Amino acid sequence: xxxxxxxxxxxxxxxxxxxxxxxxxxxxxxxxxxxxxxxxxxxxxxxxxxxxxxxxxxxxxxxxxxxxxxxxxxxx
Length: 76
Hints:
Elements: E1 16-18, E2 29-32, E3 35-41, E4 51-52, H1 57-63, E5 70-74
Parallel strand pairs: 1-3
Antiparallel strand pairs: 1-4, 2-3, 2-5
């Protein structure tokens, strides 16, 4: 069974982010700490929260939770 994101895209580690689509629409490219990500998925995220898809829970735990500036590079 193929897994797709809420937007219908194939999830990519280090590219796909989970967002509140009412805040950041699907397809939006954002810069976080100088790296590009694409808003493709959602979850229990409301408001100004972003989840970066990592290769494992351990990698996500190492990245941790933090505040940073997010820049919209391009919105679909």
